[in-house]
Design goal:
Helix Hairpins, 4 helices
Length: 234
């Protein structure tokens, strides 16, 4: 194999690894955002239940106040009833007292329902809190791992870029320029093998003359179809 081809293949390997690492680095913010979104959703779920519990408690206290108001009204009406000497007024007050007592029973039934709901919500909140703590611990570990991964990828990229600069400095400028243009435009590889007379880059058959030149290994040969630099494959 032509000596510069060997250098190009090594250079290509490093650049492909750099490209792969860069792609992984780009996913890190997305992974972090996804984890933070999960954490926020978990916390929001707990807060939603707590807010609902607060609303239930407010409703229960309002009912309690309503019961208290009616109880006071009943006490006042009973005082009036004891003081009246008129039978029709006594009965009218009695009906009013009865109405308030019926309202109190309904309010107390509603209050009981809210107390039952509050107990149910307390259990749900306790379970959600426990789940949220576990989620937070898990996500914290994952975020730490992600940060470690990000730093490791950054270090690997720096090392590969230094190695790539050293390799590039040993290659002819014109050939390096050709390689870089191909590597950036083709998106996969600038240097590819010829196997059974076929370019493995574009999968087109090369001419017999091109195949012979590649086999001879005395010069840099390009595929007449896609322009990639060729070397003899297995």
């Amino acid at each position: 194999m032509h000596s510069e081809l060997e250098q190009l293949l090594v250079l290509q390997d490093r650049q492909q690894k750099i490209r792969q690492i860069q792609a992984e680095i780009k996913t890190v913010p997305l992974e972090r955002a996804h984890l933070e979104s999960q954490l926020a959703a978990s916390a929001a779920g707990v807060e939603s239940l707590k807010q609902k519990a607060r609303q239930v408690e407010v409703g229960r206290k309002n009912l309690e106040l309503d019961v208290g108001t009616r109880t006071e009204s009943i006490a006042r009406l009973k005082t009036q009833q004891y003081q009246t000497r008129k039978n029709d007024e006594f009965q009218a007050i009695g009906h009013e007292i009865e109405r308030y007592e019926n309202e109190i029973r309904k309010l107390e039934d509603q209050e009981l329902e809210l107390m039952i709901e509050a107990d149910k919500l307390k259990g749900e909140i306790d379970a959600a809190d426990k789940s949220a703590r576990a989620t937070k611990d898990s996500i914290s570990r994952q975020l730490t791992d992600l940060e470690t991964k990000s730093k490791a990828l950054g270090s690997q990229q720096q090392e590969l870029e230094k190695e790539r600069e050293t390799l590039a400095a040993q290659i002819d400028d014109d050939l390096l320029d050709q390689f870089e243009r191909l590597f950036n435009s083709k998106g996969d590889a600038a240097v590819v093998a010829v196997e059974h007379g076929v370019c493995t880059g574009c999968h087109m058959k090369v001419t017999t003359a091109t195949a012979s030149r590649v086999k001879a290994g005395k010069e840099i040969v390009s595929c007449e179809n896609c322009g990639r630099i060729l070397y003899l494959g297995a």
